[in-house]
Design goal:
CATH class of one domain in chain B: Alpha Beta
Distance between the termini of chain A: 35 Å
Number of strands of chain B: 10
Oligomer: heterodimer
CATH architecture of one domain in chain B: 3-Layer(aba) Sandwich
Largest interface: A-B, 35 and 33 residues
Structural class of chain B: alpha/beta
Helix content of chain B: 25-40%
Number of strands of chain A: 10
CATH superfamily of one domain in chain B: P-loop containing nucleotide triphosphate hydrolases
Number of helices of chain A: 9
CATH topology of one domain in chain B: Rossmann fold
Strand order of the largest sheet of chain A: 6-7-8-3-9-10
Distance between the termini of chain B: 32 Å
Chain lengths: 250, 238
């Protein structure tokens, strides 16, 4: 396999006395979907914030495309091709869907006409094509999640960090958006997704990292981690593990 | 089967400046029930919750809680009567501590039993005890969800409205959450539940309503709804 696009090496970060991330390492590659799962408060979002430059790690390094980018600010990392979404989506409510996406598109397309073409293409790709003219405030939760994805995608990332983009969607809405994410991976974007919707993780991800108390406690294929006793105890619970058919679920 | 009517929603129309979201909703909750409300995003579930708790004013129709009309009451006095709404999206005070957020839950009701109720919340969510002096805004997403539910419990609800309580929780916590809802229910709290986790939301409920485009399009015993082929297609993606 080719070198990973992203390598996080022994990264740590504390808040006050609490180590939110404590010596965590993970990697992600082009055309692959990598899932980051773990209990609430395990440090998953903090790790995303470190990778995307919103937080500086107190120790460890972040390598992107072989370059040490540790501690670079988010705008520079965005230019390098790293984009993230946020759990709580906050579109510019007064702007149209198109203009919200346009904000991201301007990173690569300073001129408005080109940015507009790019923004519309992204809007169609995530399934918002028929809603481009609507104010973002009128979107449902499912629509806002797609818009959050579109805004990140409009920066034309090579590495896309998705923070719970499926949360708040019902099962059939999840089924609608799963192929969109798979399509992004198929056209060459490295994706890391934080997700609690396990059946989506099982169907989308090729490799899974499990974070607990700031450390990686397991990694491997979805089936491997779903059958891991530590993961079942710390994260899945026996009910969910049984449903997923984890090897040692009982 | 308990029969005393705790909540009656009759022909309610409500919405926002750009039009009605609810277009003639009818819904009953009897004392002692768990009732689930299902529906796609945009169907009006959260607006219904807001109309019941008085955050959104109804344009027409009536809402009775324990026999008395509440559709013109301010939200604070609805809270005082024991109708507690844990809103979607947590809505915590990010700059206040965990303890302070919990205390605010008992501001209008059950203030005298604040410390024992806080202990009860910590027994349910031990994680919150560990973080009691931490600012709510620095908690992880799942911990914020726990705090929002805990704050609701501080008021000793008679009717607890939970709007997507499992949002952002890990599978093991979702399992615990539903066990917890059963426990709260067993202690005598009536529950109105909105959940995207349709399977669990139906498994726990006595009855269920399905909302579409601002109206109830189906209602019945949860077990019957769960096996309805139309529902499976529309909401479970099966």
């Amino acid at each position: 396999m080719a070198d990973p696009l992203l390598s996080v090496e022994d990264v740590s970060r504390g808040f006050g006395g609490l180590m939110a991330v404590n010596g965590a390492s993970l990697s992600a590659s082009t055309r692959r979907i990598t899932a980051l799962i773990g209990p609430n408060g395990a440090g998953k979002t903090t790790l995303f914030s470190i990778i995307s430059g919103f937080l500086k790690p107190s120790a460890g390094r972040v390598l992107y495309d072989g370059i040490n980018v540790t501690g670079e600010p988010p705008y520079r990392l965005a230019r390098r091709g790293i984009a993230r979404t946020f759990q709580i989506v906050q579109p510019f409510a007064g702007l149209s869907v198109r203009d919200n996406i346009l904000v991201g598109a301007h990173l690569r397309h300073p001129r408005r006409p080109a940015a507009q073409i790019s923004a519309e293409a992204v809007g169609h790709e995530v399934g918002l094509g028929h809603l481009l003219h609507r104010p973002a405030s009128t979107l449902t939760v499912a629509g806002r999640k797609r818009l959050e994805l579109a805004r990140a995608l409009a920066t034309e990332p090579r590495l896309l960090l998705l923070d719970e983009v499926l949360a708040g969607l019902n099962p059939s809405e999840i089924n609608d958006i799963v192929p969109v994410i798979r399509g992004l991976s198929g056209r060459g974007i490295a994706i890391v997704m934080i997700e609690h919707v396990m059946h989506a993780v099982m169907s989308l991800a090729e490799q899974v990292f499990v974070l607990a108390e700031g450390r990686v406690i397991a990694q491997g294929s979805p089936a491997q981690v779903a059958g891991d006793q530590h993961v079942i105890e710390a994260y899945l619970g026996h009910g969910a593990a049984a449903k997923l058919g984890g090897a040692n679920a009982l | 089967m308990p029969s005393e009517m705790l909540l009656e929603v009759r022909d309610v129309f409500a919405g926002y400046s750009d039009g009605d979201v609810l277009r003639g909703v009818n819904l009953d909750v009897r004392a002692g029930e768990i009732v689930s409300v299902l529906g796609s995003n945009g169907a009006g579930k959260s607006t219904l919750n807001r109309a019941i708790s008085g955050v959104v004013r109804t344009r027409a129709g009536s809402i009775h809680f324990d026999g008395a009309p509440i559709e013109r009451e301010p939200p604070a006095s609805i809270v005082t009567q024991g109708l507690i709404h844990v809103p979607e999206g947590r809505r915590l005070f990010p700059n206040l501590s965990v303890d302070e957020n919990l205390d605010l839950g008992s501001y209008r009701r059950a203030g005298a039993r604040r410390s024992e109720n806080r202990e009860r919340v910590f027994a349910i969510f031990p994680r919150l005890r560990e973080r009691r002096v931490q600012r709510a805004g620095t908690l992880s997403g799942g911990e914020q969800q726990m705090l929002a539910i805990g704050r609701g419990l501080m008021a000793e609800p008679r009717l607890l409205i939970l709007d997507e309580p499992s949002l952002g929780l890990s599978p093991i916590l979702v399992e615990e959450l539903f066990a917890l809802i059963s426990r709260i229910h067993a202690e005598g709290v009536t529950v109105l539940l909105v959940e995207q986790n349709v399977v669990q939301g139906l498994a726990i409920a006595n009855r269920a309503y399905i909302l579409a485009e601002g109206q109830c399009v189906m209602s019945g015993p949860a077990a019957e709804i769960a096996s309805d082929p139309k529902l499976k297609r529309a909401y479970l993606g099966l």
